[in-house]
Amino acid sequence: MAVGSLTTSLKVRYRLTAWWVKVLVVFVASRVVTTALLLHYASIQQQNAWTGASPGYFDFAKIWDGHWYYIIAAVGYPTELPITDDGHVGESAWAFMPAYPALVRLLMLVTGLGFPVVAVVVSVAFALGAALMLYRLLALVLPGSTSLFAVVLFCFGPLSPILQVAYAESMHAFLVALALYLLVQRRYGMLVPVIAVMALTRPSGLAFALALLLHVVHRWWRARTGVEAFPWRERIGSAVAGLVSAIMGVAWLLIAGAVTGRPGAYLETELAWRAAYIGYEELIPFTPWFRAADWWAQWWQVPSWLVVTALALLIAVCATLLFTRPFRRLGVDIRFWLASYSLYLLAVFFPQSSTFRLLLPLFPGVGALAQPRSPVYRVVLVVACILGQWGWIHLAWWVDGYDWTPP
Questions:
Q1: Which of 183, 261, 289, 346 is the most buried (most CB within 10 A)?
Q2: Model pTM greater than 0.90?
Q3: Do 289 and 342 form a contact (C-beta atoms < 8 A)?
Q4: Mean pLDDT confidence for 142-160
């Protein structure tokens, strides 16, 4: 067979291949790369607080917060909060949402397998589901080839190792993609249970409530200007979904307070993690990033105003990007989520090494990065993603002596 005919035949077969098969191939290839990187670091891992030297893959995959999820799956949540010597609430399992460890616990009981194996299998399964849902979501607004390359960026991205360890991120990513898919299609009734589980997997209920509020206002405005109808049934459905999201956004705070008898149990527990940086302080919305700017300025030994200025410029650039053509092509609903979740992080999160992981729910934005069709651009971007994986594992996952850079 001539080379030209063979090439044509391969192109035809590729075009006839089902979209989900293409996504599956991308996903498997990405897991081979990421697993190889994690196994390399496991082989050079020294003894630490969670494992002995050179642990196996599953033990290496359950360190850091994975151990907290193990505690929750094994014994649940404490009814009494730990108190430090100076009277503050210390770190405890209450900082972690229950959906992921509950599912892992259920499958442990059904299969008889241990936590590390079940947790990794659950994470990988949801990671595949997230890749499939991301394609379906982006295919609503972008060509199929662009959507597939966006999946490549998601699967090979710098943060993709977190998708196959004992963390809730892959489960949350799947639910975010599913929720956005239903929102874009305006299937508000089906959206409600997805929001409920999503908000109990990772903190996101308030951010999605804001995205829904923006969605409702946008649809109402388009209806008022005669661009698009907004039937009463959909008005009620979207309002109910937004209300459920807002309620679920504070549900875990209320549950933690009720079980422990301390109304601020959840927030105080979360604040315990930043105490190592700035001591114990109350949460004042929209101040953590600027408090962190002072801390990092001292660490880097540079003027505080320089870090604050850089932060302000970064916020301005990110906000501007949402109005560029590649992001506009994603549609308003995906951009509403990107803006809402970013605003949520800006309001409550103290930036440190976990910042990269907490940016993962912004992954639908890869649809904007995937739009240029230049082969050189795409190859360079994938190589950069793989190098980013290496950098993230080295910085945040691998435990190098006294390590203050948790993932």
A1: 183
A2: yes
A3: no
A4: 98
